[in-house]
Write a structure and sequence with these properties.
Number of helices: 16
Radius of gyration: 30 Å
Distance between the termini: 77 Å
Strand order of the largest sheet: 2-6-7-10-1-11-12-13-14
Number of strands: 16
Length: 481
């Protein structure tokens, strides 16, 4: 591989989270019974006419703004003609020469270095249906079609061919996915096919400026399979070139079981699709007012938020990576920090106990009963010595289950920390009497033995004693003796 430079361009397809399809009123729900989410329009029946879903246009513009694109003032839809069983009309309504967004860029981190990949275009098209083959039907001679997905708004994000390793391609894909989730235009659920990646891969001699012959790997909806497929294809092309052969431009499928790519069809060019303007749809004019209306609704994007968390809150790279992994976690942390004034402790609680509770319940933070006010109130109760750290863990568990605020839980269950000196002195004296050995060890200078006695006091008070006060009282009583 030292002889070759890898060149990768990526097409990322994201299903938009609109309530209806791109050209009709059908709602699409993943997992619905076959062909339940269809109507005469998305089934391509004669005499039907499509109508553009404006929300899908809004989402595409929103994505273009988030990815630093030029928003096209005049755009149109085109017919992309090819026969495939999952296309009911035998053509796909897509965009060819006038996409909605052009010339953007996406920044991402890889091994501590900031990289940028340029975008060629972002356009809208309708998704195709789904073929159901022998593994489901049980009959190798028959296939069935589920057209539920046909007509779902699909946004295609096309990069320039300037990615130079499979690892870099994955980092770029993750960055795109993260942006789409932050701006809430797609759920990006790869298991359900909401986000699919298609790498175009070629090799060229080191130092050459001319692109090699490329192959395209279709529809990978798993980052692990995507990197496996790219790594295999790079090696396959290198073997062909090393043997003096020529790489054939074609579309490939990746078989995860064998770990190999297999030919699907020869690669079509634009002429093969016989594009022409879609005659049944009006052209789209996007004026400055439309763009200005969408621009303020964009949230703080993940790369900018990571930079702010690092600079303003002095967090570690590991903390920042975790806290910005989703917009909802980042928002929760941000609000919790503003209320409590303590970013480090907020980060520890979110990454520790709150993350544990969410994982056990198998829910996301936005679906839980916990709010930033719960976290800030819990931190305040600890800081003013109302409760100990140990009690705080049981309080957050209860708050997660019931939604009650920490102070209410502490009051109702009598969990306030015991800081009354006279009450603690009596308990300490009893613990010393019950544990003469460790008490004598402390008197003899074995300081670590005091930890055992503190533990016994905490046990006797069910964790409600103030640990600092217990330490002071034990030290005082034993030293006086």
């Amino acid at each position: 591989m030292d002889k070759y430079e890898i060149v990768i361009g990526l097409e990322i397809h994201a299903e938009l989270s609109t309530e209806s399809k791109l050209f009709c009123n059908c709602a699409y729900t993943f997992g619905s019974s076959a062909n339940d989410c269809t109507c005469p329009i998305c089934l391509g029946l004669p005499g039907t006419l499509p109508v553009i879903n404006q929300r899908a246009l809004d989402y595409a513009i929103r994505t273009g703004l988030a990815m630093n694109c030029e928003i096209t003032s005049y755009s149109k839809f085109d017919r992309k003609n090819y026969f495939y069983p999952d296309l009911p009309k035998n053509y796909q309504i897509s965009q060819y020469d006038l996409p909605l967004c052009q010339n953007g860029k996406v920044e991402f981190e890889l091994n501590g270095e900031t990289k940028t990949v340029a975008l060629r275009r972002i356009h809208l098209e309708e998704d195709a249906g789904k073929s159901i083959h022998a593994e489901v039907t049980g009959d190798p001679t028959r296939s069935f079609m589920d057209f539920n997905r046909a007509g779902v708004p699909l946004m295609e994000i096309v990069s320039e061919p300037e990615i130079h390793s499979p690892e870099e391609a994955i980092a770029y894909c993750r960055a795109v996915k993260e942006i789409l989730e932050y701006i809430e235009v797609s759920d990006c659920n790869m298991e359900e096919g909401s986000l699919r990646c298609e790498p175009n891969i070629s090799l060229r001699p080191q130092g050459s400026q001319e692109l090699g012959t490329r192959t395209e790997i279709k529809n990978k909806n798993s980052f692990q399979e995507l990197i496996d497929a790219m790594e295999y294809e790079v090696k396959r092309q290198a073997r062909i070139l090393d043997s003096g052969g020529k790489v054939v431009q074609e579309t490939l499928l990746f078989d995860a079981e064998t770990g190999k790519t297999v030919a699907m069809r020869s690669k079509e060019e634009a002429d093969d699709y016989r594009y022409f303007p879609e005659p049944d749809l009006v052209h789209v004019q996007i004026d400055d007012e439309w763009v200005k209306e969408i621009q303020p609704s964009l949230p703080e994007l993940p790369a900018i938020r990571r930079r702010r968390f690092t600079e303003d809150y002095n967090l570690t790279s590991e903390q920042v990576e975790f806290l910005t992994s989703t917009r909802q976690i980042a928002d929760f942390f941000d609000e919790g920090t503003k209320l409590s004034g303590n970013p480090s402790i907020c980060a520890n609680w979110i990454m520790g106990d709150i993350s544990r509770l969410l994982n056990n319940a198998e829910i996301e933070i936005q679906d839980s009963k916990l709010l930033p006010t719960h976290l800030s109130e819990l931190i305040q109760l600890i800081e003013d010595n109302t409760i100990s750290g140990k009690i705080a863990k049981s309080v957050i568990d209860e708050a997660f289950q019931s939604g009650k605020l920490p102070k209410q839980i502490v009051d109702e269950e009598g969990l306030s920390q015991i800081s009354d000196t006279s009450e603690l002195e009596a308990i300490v004296q009893k613990v010393i009497e019950d544990n003469p050995g460790p008490a004598q060890d402390v008197r003899d200078g074995t300081k670590k033995a005091i930890g055992f006695l503190v533990g016994q006091v905490m046990r006797a008070t069910q964790g409600k004693a103030n640990p600092q006060a217990v330490n002071q009282i034990l030290s005082k009583v034993l030293s006086e003796e």
